[in-house]
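Predict fold of Cytochrome P450; 488 aa.
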Amino acid sequence: MEDYHCLAFLVVLLILRFRLPKKHVYAVPSADAPIPWIGTILELYKDGVTFLRKSRERYGPVYTLTVGHQRVTVATHKEGVMRIMKDKSLENNINIWLFESLGGVESGTITRQIFRLLSTSVLRSFSARGITQLAPLYSDCVIHETTSFINAHKGERISLIEFVSFTIYRAVSVALFGPKFPLDTQLDLQCIIYYFPRLLTPRMFLPRTPVEARARVISALDSFIKENWNQKNGFPGAADAGNDLLRTLRSAHLTSQTELAILFAFIIGLHINTLRVTCWFFALLIHHPTALIAVRDEVDRLIDEEHSGSLNSLLSSPSKAVGKNSLPFLDSALNEVLRLCVLPVLVRQASSDIHLALDGDRSVVLKEGQYIVADGHVLNMAEDVFEDPERFKFDRFTKYDDRQGIPTPPLVSAFGSGPNICKGQDFAIYEMKVLVIVCLRMYDFTGETLTGNKLPSCCPKASTTLPTPVKYLEEDVYLRFNERIHPT
Ligand code: HEM
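Predicted 3D structure, encoded as tokens:
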């Protein structure tokens, strides 16, 4: 009887084996540049964005590239991109490498476990719910820092990059860690963000500017913690989010050097993308006056009609200021800024040998350690999906309404997706919107580049953006602010 069962079981397996469609491993085309070995790296360095777009046009949505000695598969279609981002057997090892290189500690110091601990703390404290307590502190600081910066530069042209770095860095730092935070680290932070690739690949003959700036910031953080931290009460005047972060780090019982390296890397990570996107947000609004006026009128209407003319009242209820549907033009404009200036080109590494289905027809085999890339930017710029994709159309996203049967086109989120999705995205959106709302409500502003160029020309070199996903603003914009008078 047992033999009979075994035989029946084998027959069923055999039938299933032949009836189930075979996983089709198709031949992935190679998009390598003609010059062997270094050709592809040179192309990526010269103008990575154009190279990736042309590769898709020529070879279809999935192709391979040889980068150094690695064969890397690239997927550029919605299904493939989503599957890569969501697959649990693919790891995002770049984040840990970034943290170690930024913090200046040896490889292997920051483990996956420590990174997860930190990431969970960010998710807990910086999500929409977590920022309710942080919001009034942050918005008060933004108003204070904006007015003091503009008053201190009365009658002068103001650098957009300096203005955004100054206001956001100071406001976030005071809100998160209290008024005793060493704010004089702001210029060092700006320098580190500008020369950031040099911290990742230290080269002997380049100036050590960012390395020295990092040492100064870490030393200032060390003194700040020693003088102000209290395990029970946290930092005086700080939001729960900042205290939670340090408590989480302390619970890992790290050496003081590792703890400071992680805190430093976190602070850079907290600001590097947000500062760049905010600069693009201002630059694009300034260069599209129709957009600026429409967004400003919408902000005015909300404040005047629902908050009796009080900016503070709007900002103290974060769900109104930044919640969906309150400011549809502002939301759409921000979505458009993110679509244009963020490169969600996400790199993953196979943690074991795997067979990965990228869509119904295509699947690839990856050996342990092999890399695969989800190129969401090419998809976000696809002409068949977005009409006139290079243009900034501030109201592009207002016409879609999934509930009304007008679905949003397949946009790859600037914040990624799946297990490694950005844990600070709610806070990032909140931060950026508050600064823009404050400036639109309190000031009329115009801006120009020194060369008279129209922004954005958006032609980033891979080396200037990677491994952060936001394009550099190639030219600074110089602003002039004039106070607006509102009838009382
Ligand atoms: C506009 C600003 C920002 C952009 C465009 C951005 C974008 C991203 C992207 C693309 C990823 C990688 C997602 C992936 O690999 O699938 C990421 C990861 C992450 N981001 Fe952001 N980010 C921003 C701001 C922030 C802020 C303000 C914070 C902290 C409060 C933050 C914390 C994180 C963390 C902790 C991760 C790692 C998630 C993980 O692997 O568990 N981000 N971000």
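The two ends are 93 Å apart (CA to CA).
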